[in-house]
What does this fold into?
Amino acid sequence: MRLLLIGPPGCGKGTQGARIAERYAVEHIAAGDILRAEVAAETALGRQIAGYISAGALVPDDVILDVVVPKVLAAAKADGYVLDGFPRTIRQAAAARRIAEEHASAVRCAIYMEVPQEELVARLLRRAEIEGRSDDKPDVIRHRLEVFTEATAPLIDFYGERGLLDVVDATLAPDEVTEQILTALPALVRARPVAS
Ligand code: AMP
It folds into this structure.
C-alpha cells in the first residue's frame, strides 16, 4: 500500500491516515507531525520552521523534501505508507515522484477528502479549543485554507490525470469516511497507473 491522502486542513487526514495505515500495517507519515516534533525538540531545523507553521505558511519545498523523502523511501522499502500532508505542492509531488520512481516507491493511489470551506473553519476552531495548536487561530486558519486552494488543490488534477485518484465525502462521520476509503482502495490499487 502506497497511499496519499489529500485534503484541506481540518478534513480529518490525520485521523484517517492513522486508521488506514493500521489496517494495512504500513507506516503513517504525517508531514505536519514530523515538523511539529522538530519544533518541540528545538532542533536547528525546528527553529528554522517554527515561524512558517505558526503563520500557516508552507515550509520551503527543499526543506520538506530533505526531511520527508528519506522517510517515504524507507517506509516503501518496508511494507508501504500512508502519506498525510506531503506532497503539498506540485513541485514537491513532481520531485518526490522523480526520486521515488527510481526506487519503485512512488505513490500508487491518492484519495481526496472533500469538505466545504465553511465546515472546515468551524471544525478547526473547535480543534483550537481542544489542542491549542499554534496555527489554529482564525486568521491563520483562513490563510491555511487559501494556501490549500492555491498550492495543494492542483494535486487533485496531478494524481487524477495519472488515474490514481478517488474522492470521498469527508463531511461524514469518521467511521463512514474510513469505510469509503477502504471501499475505494482495492480498485485504485488494482488500476494500472498511467505513465507519469
Ligand atoms: P498539518 O499538520 O498537515 O496541517 O501541517 C501543519 C503545518 O506544517 C502546515 O501549515 C505547514 O506550515 C507545515 N507543513 C506540513 N506539511 C508540509 C509540506 N508538505 N510542505 C510545506 N509545509 C508543510
